[in-house]
Design goal:
The protein is α+β, with helices and mostly antiparallel strands and 77 residues long. 32% of the residues lie in helices and 29% in strands. The chain contains 2 helices and 4 strands; from the N terminus they run βαβαββ. It has a 4-stranded mixed β-sheet with strand order 1-2-4-3, with helices on one face. The radius of gyration is 11 Å and the shape is globular. The relative contact order is 0.24.
Amino acid sequence: MEVLDLTPWRCPEPLLRLKLWLRDAKAGQIVTIRLADAGSRQDIPVYLQRLGHRVILTPEPDNTLSLQLVVGATQSS
């Protein structure tokens, strides 16, 4: 599975890099995204859900957030 490690960067860089990655993403594509910045951990999952992607959050013990993104798959109720 592809991993997009955005932990080295602080806001707004993770969001900008994610937007660039999404330009080439295909519907159904799955990627694990790792975030360390507090603002990004809060804002990016909400942003992705608003775009209609499925997001599964996994808080990590090292104060980072891993999320699994399924491109174009809406959240199930």
